[in-house]
Write a structure and sequence with these properties.
2 copies of one chain form a homodimer.
Chain A (H helix, E strand, L loop, with lengths): L16 H11 L3 E3 L6 E3 L1 H20 L3 E2 L5 E3 H10 L9 E10 L2 E14 L4 H11 L8 E10 L13 E11 L2 H22 L5 E4 L11 E8 L5 E9 L3 H6 L2 E3 L5 E3 L1 E8 L1 H10 L16 E5 L6 H17 L2 E2 L2 E2 L2 E3 L6 H11 L3 E5 L1 H6 L1 E6 L8 E4 H29 L1 E2 L5 H7 L14 E6 L5 H8 L2 E6 L18 E6 L3
Parallel strand pairs in A: 3-7, 15-18, 15-19, 22-23
Antiparallel strand pairs in A: 1-2, 4-6, 5-6, 7-8, 8-14, 9-10, 9-24, 10-11, 11-14, 12-13, 16-17, 19-20, 20-21, 23-25, 24-25
Amino acid sequence: MAKPQKTAISPTRAENYPDWYQAVIRGADMAENSPVRGCMVIKPWGYAIWERLQGALDRRFKATGHENAYFPLLIPLRFIEKEAAHVEGFAKEMAVVTHHRLTAKDGRLVPDAPLEEPLIIRPTSETIIGEAFSNWVRSYRDLPLLVNQWANVMRWELRPRLFLRTSEFLWQEGHTAHADEKDAREETMRMLEVYREVAEDELAFPVICGEKPEFERFPGAVNTYCIEAMMQDGKALQAGTSHYLGQNFARAANIKYQTEAGDWELCHTTSWGVSTRLIGALIMTHADDNGLKLPPRLAPTQVVILPILREAEDRARVMPFAEELCKAVSAQIFSGEPIRAKVDARDYPAPDKRWEWVRKGVPVILEVGPRDLENRTAAFTRRDRLEEKKAILPDSEIALRIGGFLSDIQGSLLHAARAFRDRRLRADIADLAAFTAAFSGDEDNSFASSLGFVRAPWCGEDATQETLKALKVTIRCLPFDQPKSLGPCVLTGKPAVAEAIFAKAY
Amino acid sequence: MAKPQKTAISPTRAENYPDWYQAVIRGADMAENSPVRGCMVIKPWGYAIWERLQGALDRRFKATGHENAYFPLLIPLRFIEKEAAHVEGFAKEMAVVTHHRLTAKDGRLVPDAPLEEPLIIRPTSETIIGEAFSNWVRSYRDLPLLVNQWANVMRWELRPRLFLRTSEFLWQEGHTAHADEKDAREETMRMLEVYREVAEDELAFPVICGEKPEFERFPGAVNTYCIEAMMQDGKALQAGTSHYLGQNFARAANIKYQTEAGDWELCHTTSWGVSTRLIGALIMTHADDNGLKLPPRLAPTQVVILPILREAEDRARVMPFAEELCKAVSAQIFSGEPIRAKVDARDYPAPDKRWEWVRKGVPVILEVGPRDLENRTAAFTRRDRLEEKKAILPDSEIALRIGGFLSDIQGSLLHAARAFRDRRLRADIADLAAFTAAFSGDEDNSFASSLGFVRAPWCGEDATQETLKALKVTIRCLPFDQPKSLGPCVLTGKPAVAEAIFAKAY
């Protein structure tokens, strides 16, 4: 039997998937738990990835005519009450501000000056933006109103996990108002397509686009659309949602406009959002037992150059060559921007630094030592093919080929994720017995199992929720691409209304 | 007597300066009060200016080696208590979270599930970042640690004013740790210089750089440096601060590193910050009785093109010319980026749209009507010289000259602000009687008065605080450029230690 290979991340995915996930984050130095339960500190490497992702999204939001704005962190209790009154399934775990002063008493500080009305830290800004829109919209000339907000939000989480489920997280929420249904529906689909494109072209993971069944809809929405991704344990992660809200929210918030003819009409509204959760999805899609693998487009550093200094006197000779190489690489273009390269000159042993960058998922590592000086070469490692032998390349080739390598890595990551997803997407499950068997693996440690998505016909009946709940399975979406004819419902044997994607989920 | 000119903003600066300020913000559609007292909604035009300003700062932070990170919104009470224990002048107006649930009771929602320890919405992240640094720093190899955070913070304000003083505001806070005093002091001055450069080169207002006297220091700092700007009512506004904290904060938070020799030493730390307050300063520096004037570098739209449509059939002829002009202008460069131009095709009367853009402070307005089509001309208005007659320029000239115009506007705004500041900076006040007279104008409506800065020698004695307090005057800073010899203290007649800038302040 082959000796198990030593890996940079322990435990491995097969040993303990949830613990592996935490270890990847720790190993890449992306985030950590804070002294406030459920809230995380996003460390520089994790935050730089978020900034890149924000940039990729924000460029597309602006290109499609949206403007950013900022709404208050705190929401008056009466706004939440109004929402709670007409929305079933209202989440009640929220941070409540009740006082606005701290006063010293017996050597301690105690809350003082109670507020007349408690304030809630926004779990979403839906209600307060609705209130603003009702003041901002007056005439058909003001429509469409296309607003986005980048913000922190808070939902008290009892079982937090870094990036995936934290009490505080960062997100964007788009809110738009339109004169008619057609315009609002187009917006809903346009933003879903923005999310699909960012997931596949930037984050390099494939997603299934579709609609949520009625019982999985955002409360109050007419239609909820989503992009669903498969993690390496076969579970689904909802990576983004886009809601067509009809006139429901406009009615609740009184968002009306005067038509060209002079009548007053309710707007049709939409909302859509993604969050730092996407970083959790990025990790669980691409990372392996040696740590993170970053798609080059989102990598804060794309190429790291490590000087190998065996003797103290090597520094004076090797460093200038490393800097020269860095300059040559930085002068090249990838994805329309100069390549982000840096020399890691820190006074740590080279192997330690190498493994640090492997764990951080930097796409390309170049190593240059005293012997490379004479030959003017560098050892070249692709993070996505770490197991392969390092290539020794002449310096004249490196700068010229690096953009191509990065492009190939970006494509390879997407390809590998798609192949994985397709391998574990089963379309051959025909009845409840097979369905039950397909979802009976060990849920908490399913990397090595065959757990995945099941794509099968579904009858659309509410009662199927009970069957699914017992199996801890959910309908992720009804994909947009539907076959011309459908077999019977996999759960009930009744005539089906659509094919659905079934999965266990984060 | 000349008939008073009609202005776009009412009241004017001379009529009621504080109300004029609010009216400029309303007229430019930058921000509004929210349903939560003291918290503002930053509307798209205001937020787009903030995004430009963020970009200008963030580029410089990164160019000087800083990385962004994100720390939790909530801070445990015990952290604040620890700080309060060793810091005098501790501010106690803070939002306190005491519960993490809302529960329905008699048809209302009430706070439920009390927290074991109350949590405070961050008034600054000093303590929680200190705690993180104490875990992150281990070795001299990890230093300097250069971190910045973009975040919302909250300090309960009883007398809020949009941008200038709001309970919630947006800011950045830089926190750095260094191996020695020299490195930390260099950092402190480097970041002050970043602030000066952004104020003068981007925001186009001149600032005085200097050090705060001891009694105006950030609590716990060894030195506090600042940039001070003069508003149009002659009051000072502290536009940014940079603190050298010595080892005080490192001692409190236990931020230690192992030296190359193996000993453990306390770090030297710094912190520095600016906020959305800068937008208040921008308004009060450049706006006039017709609204905002934006420095072109920060203007979300630099050139707006207004089609003048007198008859319905004009649209089909004029719009293509307007679009063509927009394309030609957008193909030109200003300050290293394509010029940001747009056609305002909204179905509102042209004069209304023109005044809207004047109030919003867009640097250049181009108007094209049916007659311009034949001559291929456009009417050209510079917002900073609104009173001048519109220039009629041939379309062949406009695109080529526009970058130069924008550059000239950027320079002119700074020049005008500097001339205003210098005019109201008095260096001729020699004794307390003259000093008292200089500051005896109507504080709340001082646009038309001669209120301004006084630059005069100061004895450095703590007791002078009382004299100043009675006059509602503060020492803004001891400017870096000091004369070789000093006269006697303007307040006491005693020997002076430095020249100081005295002013009433926001």
